Amino acid sequence: LATGPRQNNGIFYEIRTYDIKPAKMKEFLEMINKYIHFRTAHSELVGFWYTELGAMNKVFHIWKYDNFAHRTAVRHALANDKDWQGKFISVALPLIEKQHNEVAYLVPWCQLGKPPKEGGVYEWVTFQMKPGGPALWGEAFRAAINAHINTGYTRLIGVFHTEYGLLNTVHVLWWNESPDHRAAGRHSAHEDARVVAAVRDSVRFLESQQNALLIPLQCSPLK
């Protein structure tokens, strides 16, 4: 079943996850920082991160598109960009073990945010919800997110739900000053009756949950 309501425009986000060969991670990250300007000349990069905890040797990057025609035009231009193809793609592909992409929309009640300062860490949380979409679990999920926001220990950056990929998947991107700040905040949240009640209501619709601690690359707009 489709995930239901979305923002009232055509803007969507392509979420790309690459598994990098363990011995090649440093080389891949150096190449991204060096050559990403060839790629960002064609469309907007929201953020680029590598995983520190929760997964190993993975990178996450998010690209913004006005609509599907925009993405098609960008992909065509990239295929004909000699700098991007010759200096990055031809060298980087042998470093990658696996690629995965999803198309997602921001949920209607969320605008893409920014951290209050640079230098923190990001948490990428993936919720696999029961089939039925926001009509079934949307309000309970929103209440759980707001309960965490209201504790003040974390900053919400974005909530995305999938349109292509595994449906009824929601990705939530958070920002914290440090892993220790996040850990202390989580401890307090677990003792907050409002958070506990909201989460308890939301998990009735939850199939699984996975999270990863992300470190932004130097080239990442979100960092």
Describe the overall structure.
35% of the residues lie in helices and 34% in strands. It is an alpha+beta fold and 223 residues long. The protein has 2 domains: 12-104, 2-Layer Sandwich (Alpha-Beta Plaits); 107-216, Alpha-Beta Plaits. The chain has an 8-stranded antiparallel barrel. The longest helix has 18 residues, at 134-151. InterPro entries: Dimeric_a/b-barrel, NIPSNAP, NipSnap_domain. One of its GO terms (cellular component) is mitochondrion. Residues 13-111, 122-221 form the NIPSNAP domain.
Topology record:
Layout: E1 12-20, H1 25-40, E2 44-53, E3 58-65, H2 68-79, H3 82-92, E4 96-106, E5 121-129, H4 134-151, E6 155-164, E7 169-176, H5 179-190, H6 193-202, E8 206-216
Antiparallel strand pairs: 1-3, 1-4, 2-3, 2-8, 4-6, 5-7, 5-8, 6-7
Helix pairs in contact: 1-3, 4-6
Domain NIPSNAP: 13-111, 122-221
Protein name: NPS3A protein
Family: Belongs to the NipSnap family.
DSSP helical segment count: 6
Number of domains: 2
Strand order of the largest sheet: 1-3-2-8-5-7-6-4
Distance between the termini: 35 Å
Rounded mean pLDDT score? 94
The CATH architecture of the largest domain would be 2-Layer Sandwich
Rg, alpha carbons:
18 Å
Structural class by sheet pairing and helices:
alpha+beta
The description of the largest β-sheet is:
8 strands, antiparallel, barrel
Q: Name the beta content range.
A: 25-35%
- Given as residue ranges, the uncertain stretches (5+ residues, pLDDT < 50) are none
Q: What's the total number of strands?
A: 8
| Top-tier CATH class of the largest domain | Alpha Beta
Instruction: Please bin the fraction of helical residues.
Output: 25-40%
Q: What is the 3D shape?
A: globular
- Quote the CATH topology of the largest domain: Alpha-Beta Plaits
Order of helices and strands: EHEEHHEEHEEHHE
InterPro entries: Dimeric_a/b-barrel (IPR011008), NIPSNAP (IPR012577), NipSnap_domain (IPR051557)
Protein name: NPS3A protein
Family: Belongs to the NipSnap family.
Domain NIPSNAP: 13-111, 122-221
